[in-house]
């Protein structure tokens, strides 16, 4: 475990492992420890992975200023990591909610980004709306699964704004290609890795300015890969197409059969796609 001091004196941790050129990895959640990323399906055999534990998560320290959990302020932690690593430019890989942070970093420091891989991205930072109908249509692709009736009933409650903790737990199978022991263990571990207080601040007022971010993205010339899961309820492919259109040099790849964690659903396909892009 490596560590460094960020701009405000908070000690941050990152896991560094693997072989090859480095790629900085930003976890989602939001505000979840990077442990859930594992070794990204074996990507560590192709690249050195530098997995940041965002402040207040994993092995990183808690800040005194809890407002510093806000996504736009976390950009300064990513820049502090780059300086710590001594990299003039760095390749960035981000997952889910962490892609908002990666996008904000790329707009503020475009000259510091080599390649940008966005895995099953969130679209909050750019103001794209994903309708309930789009999520429902994606969910219906799983209608032949044995767990579907209970999970879909819970999803209807969530989409109606009546989602309870039990309902959110019940829709968990939608996030994975296979709701098997591996997926269930991953979900159980993930539940204990998230800083709920920090997550509530991450997207709070002032964190995002979608109009300004969209304008700034037109000036980002780094190659961008958007990897979507074909059955991902969180980031359905139609919304990913809309997101890709905001970048001058973006490629969208939809991984067949994948949910929200494509490195778990088909590790070989995931690693082949990401390593080819980063090569």
The proportion of residues forming helix, as a percent range, comes to 25-40%
Any idea how many domains? 1
Instruction: Report, as a whole number of angstroms, the end-to-end distance.
Output: 26 Å
Give the CATH H-level superfamily. Answer: Alpha/Beta hydrolase fold, catalytic domain
Looking at how many chains there are and whether they match, the oligomeric state comes to single chain
Q: What amount of the residues lies in strands?
A: 15-25%
Mean pLDDT: 96
Q: How many helical elements?
A: 11
Provide an overview of this structure.
There is one protein chain. This protein has 279 residues and is of the alpha/beta class. The chain has one domain (2-127, 194-278): Alpha/Beta hydrolase fold, catalytic domain (Rossmann fold, 3-Layer(aba) Sandwich). The chain contains eleven helices and eight strands. The protein has an eight-stranded mixed beta sheet, sandwiched between helices. Helix 2 (98-108) links the parallel strand 5 (90-95) and strand 6 (113-119). Helix 1 (71-85) crosses helix 2.
């Amino acid at each position: 475990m490596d560590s460094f001091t960020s701009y405000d004196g908070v000690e941050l941790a990152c896991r560094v492992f693997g072989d090859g050129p480095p790629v900085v990895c930003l976890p989602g959640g939001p505000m979840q420890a990077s442990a859930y990323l594992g070794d990204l399906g074996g990507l560590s055999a192709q690249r050195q992975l530098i997995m940041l534990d965002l402040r207040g998560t994993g092995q990183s320290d808690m800040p005194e200023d809890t407002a510093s959990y806000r996504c736009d302020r976390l950009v300064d932690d990513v820049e502090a990591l780059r300086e710590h690593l001594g990299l003039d430019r760095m390749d960035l890989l981000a997952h889910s909610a962490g892609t908002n942070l990666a996008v904000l970093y790329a707009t503020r420091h475009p000259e510091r980004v080599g390649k940008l891989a966005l895995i099953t991205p969130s679209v909050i930072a750019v103001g794209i709306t994903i309708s309930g109908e789009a999520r429902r249509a994606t969910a219906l692709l799983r209608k032949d699964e044995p767990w579907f009736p209970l999970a879909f009933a819970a999803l209807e409650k969530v989409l109606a704004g009546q989602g309870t903790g039990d309902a959110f737990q019940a829709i968990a199978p939608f996030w994975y290609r296979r709701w098997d022991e591996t997926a269930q263990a991953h979900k159980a571990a993930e539940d204990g890795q998230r800083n709920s207080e920090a997550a509530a601040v991450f997207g709070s007022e002032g964190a995002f300015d979608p109009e300004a971010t969209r304008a700034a993205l037109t000036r980002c010339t780094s190659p961008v890969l958007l990897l979507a899961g074909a059955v991902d309820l969180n980031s359905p492919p139609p919304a990913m197409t809309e997101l890709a259109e905001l970048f001058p040099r973006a490629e969208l790849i939809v991984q067949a059969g994948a949910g929200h964690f494509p490195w778990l659903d088909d590790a070989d396909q995931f690693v082949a796609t990401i390593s080819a892009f980063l090569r």
